[in-house]
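Appendix B: complex inputs.
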Amino acid sequence: MWAFLGSDVLFFGTLIATHLVYRGKSVSGPAEGILDIPITTISTFVLLMSSLSMVLALSGLQRGKMGEARFWLAATALLGSVFIGFQMFEFTEFAKEGLTPRTNLFGSTFLVMTGFHGTHVAVGIFWLWSLFFSTFNGKIHQGNALEVEIAGLYWHFVDIVWIVIFGVVYLVGAYGAEEHVAEGAHSAVAILGLG
Amino acid sequence: MAANTGILRRPLAPSGIWAWMTTVDHKRIGVLYGVTAFFFFMLGGMEALVMRVQLASAESTIVSATTFNAMFTMHGTTMVFMVVMPAGAAFFNFLVPLMIGARDVAFPRLNAFSYWLFLFGALLMNFSFFMNAFPDMGWFGYAPLTSNEFTISNATDYWVLGLLIMGIGTTAAGFNFVVTILNMRAPGMTLMRMPVFVWMTLVVAFLIIFAFPPLTIALTFLLFDRFFDTNFFSDIGAGSDPLLWQHLFWIFGHPEVYILILPSMGIVSDVLPTFTRKPLFGYTMIVFAGAVIGFLGFGVWAHHMFTTGLGPWANAAFAATTMAIAVPTGVKIFNWLATLYGGAIQFKTPMLFTLGFISMFMLGGLSGVMHAVVPVDSQQSDTYFIVAHFHYVLFGGAIFGITSGVYYWFPKMTGRMMSEPIGKLHFWLMLIGFNLTFMPMHILGVIGMPRRIYTYAEDMGFEPLNQMVSAGAFVIALSIIIFTINIVRSVRQGEIAGDNPWGAATLEWSISSPPHHYNFAVVPTVRSQYPLWDEDANVVTPPALPAHEEPIMPDPSYWPIVLAFAITMVAGGLIIWQGHAIAGLTVISSMGLLGMRSIFGWVLEPMEEEQRVSVHH
Amino acid sequence: MVRFPKFSTPLLTVALMVLLLAVLSACTSPQNTFDPKSDAADSILTLYILVTVVASIVGFAVLAAMVWLLVKYRAKPGVPAKQIHGNNKLEIGWTIAPIVVLLIILFPTMFWIAGTADNPGPNTLEVEATGHQWWFEFTYPGLGPEGGDLITANELVIPVGRDVRVTLHSDDVVHSFWVPQLVGKTDMFPGRTNVLQTFSAYEVGEYYGQCAEFCGAAHALMRFRVHVKTTADFENWATAHNAGPVALEPGTAAARGQLGFATCAGCHAISGTVAQGRIGPDLSLFGERSTVAAGILDNTDSNLKAWIGDVRTIKPIPEGARFMPTFKDTLDEGQIADIAAYLNSLTAE
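Resulting structure:
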């Protein structure tokens, strides 16, 4: 899993970098202004809490407390689903306001990046439900808690990626596009000729 | 009781087509990779010969521009992704567990999955030939030429999807080998006692898992541009930057060339001691240099973009890092040569190819250093000088190295020796043909012949040298025919090899040729880099274990091939969807469901069945 | 046990001599980077020779060392191999030595990069080159009629001994501008502007160039020429270019062709006439050009007629690509001949 996550770091890194390289370059159409920071803050908090519930699920399983494990596994999956719900709401609102992957550079890069993240979350949710049901037929138990630990690693990774996206894309994007933070990024980008 | 997680019974038979299609044995998977790579080597070679026939005379009309452009696109794509990489995988697969004293890799089914994805992705891409959509936009697929606006046919789609599928397989193999090498070494085999080949495999595995994501993303962006009208590269008016494609491609592309060459560097590092009868000179430095090359390899990518107008700071920085990477490379070459010093050199065929590798790769490295000088590159870039450079390192380097490996480990894989006289003929013909083909290309580059041109004017003065090049290409072809004869003949009637025909030192030579499916009857304890040369090494290969004492090995499974098939068909469905929406969606959804079902079947299936006696060979 | 084949050394030497002779005899070309005709190309060649010499010395030395080691240490009965594991001093030595050699080529590289920073002077001639599939467009800001742009195609005309600064752009895919005897190449991108290294040609003459970035089916046939003229000739050329055609004698093929050119005016322009189409190449002063069809055919009457009649028999234009239509079905041979005569009548006299 660590090897896979190392690779996934580069996967998301490239997606985020592309979005940053194209920041401010959209010729027409909505850009960072369309982001709703308050709503996204809530969904980010929800995802963060899901990491906590994941830890609690693993801890319960490692101590042999099947009830706890099941509860927190389900909680994680549900919190993840709430997050996805918020994302879907956000995307449909954007579409109504005229932002789709076809609209402009912001649309393409932002939606593909968050889309891949959402897909990762969805896969994780699927995985969590599978683990949940497996606690009932004896396939997941205290002895093979490693299976849940590995799922936990994946889940925390997906969470961390979101924190990076939220910070760099949402917060800096909406509030800091004119600040020197973005300018610093722009000069780095200009050095690479992507100016 | 066999736990069936699918409709069909779990396959348990040891032989026949079904056994090969469901194998999870690393040795068989290695053979599959090797045979497939060899087949594509012939195909890529023929693509090259078509080009050479066309270019042998000025203003030739033997093939059309589109055909020629497809030839150079597919020759490059085939050789890189369907020959050199899988040949490396063939060696990793067959040898790494044997060399570290393990019975298989960490994830045997994932291993099979990687192979099937490679095969199906390669077939998907080549299938385009029959649909009159053979990719012709260059193996590097520069935007915006690859966008819908400038490439109307499906050719680019086949290329993108084929590469994506092969890429998933490769990345999975990367994970597999990192985990295998780090976790499954025999007791006593510290990292610094591993054969250099294993070390190089480890570095390559890390390179793969870090270099393939940018390519995956770039291909995904291109795919979305072509299928869903997004704006990553294709809409200049909306601000798309074609240079972004180049950056992403080369951030992958440069580590990729180290992925291509490091396995061969590992091979020669293990062949040299055997045929000089002394340890490798500077093992630590060779390993360390290999790791440094891998690491620095991520910092030089823009030297492929010196003519794109990046600006003086970027050009200067990348010129410096590119020159820097010559240092560890040189260190390796010097250490290999020092291994010859004081040796008792035997000029067997594997050794000849290894010597060919060292000398030809060195020449290619020198022309590479020339490209690092930015102004010189402004005259060399996109000319035959570059073609000369990378063929010296990829053919003179990787192919010679791989060939050395084939001659060296063929006895271990098949139990028979290859013919020495035929092997020597192969070597000399290939060496002469290779130099005749690629040395004149340096001159052609100097006198101004650009790359990727299907013809040139009569008054340019390019013809005589091109004729020499084309003649050389046919000499190479002849040498490959001789190689094939050697392989076929030796499989059937080669001299029986025994366990250690070369008197080599590493663990794979301590077991039978070919090895039993469980590799080691008893997992060895290792005390040095050259276990079989240890003074107290008492290497007697144990006889085959009776069936009931055989270690329990992972059972075959059909989920890897089924899932690989499903993924490939989803990709095919995407292409169909472009022309026929309903048919395409049907294929995508049905194959998608098959894929999901396969994942469940795979995950829920145990590694090996309980309560049964092994019926393997 | 195999004997190291002793016959190979003389054979190899003979083979190398033959190769060298063949190579030297083929060493000339109108795009020869080792035959510079400008200050820029010359400065590049200096570094080119430096790295070639360094690389050749290193290559030869290493090969010689290898051959010596192979001969000296081939297996001999009763002589065991020396069990050496390594030598730290050597490792340090052969790490430092390459670094030193690389510094020898790194410093000149850095100085060259710094020295060729874009810095146009007051007398620099500015030209804008735009790549199209599959031809080159050249625009001289300020040199055109009434101080506007002078636009021409496929044959760049410049004065000798004067700094020329070419900015590069593309209308469609990535191309590259390369005229080896004058300057190293730089790519032409859609959506961004690059600048070629400023150069000043030494001698009057005609130089060959070619697109050097794969740009589609007809990439191999996208070439151009650079005409370096004396300052006076250059000025005459620009004046004649802007002035447009002299009055043609009625009844001649050229006069008929001028009328027939109305078919072409939708895409082509000729300065000083009503033809002002900007989709295809500008054809002013066409009679001065040495080539037809972007540098691939000599400008003869028959080549020009063949091109006008059916470009698709000369260049591999893909279906659906935006390019000059085929005219052999809409114009008869006489009409095509007249247009060709008209075009070649457009000279500087």
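Residues 65-100 of chain B form the longest helix (36 residues).
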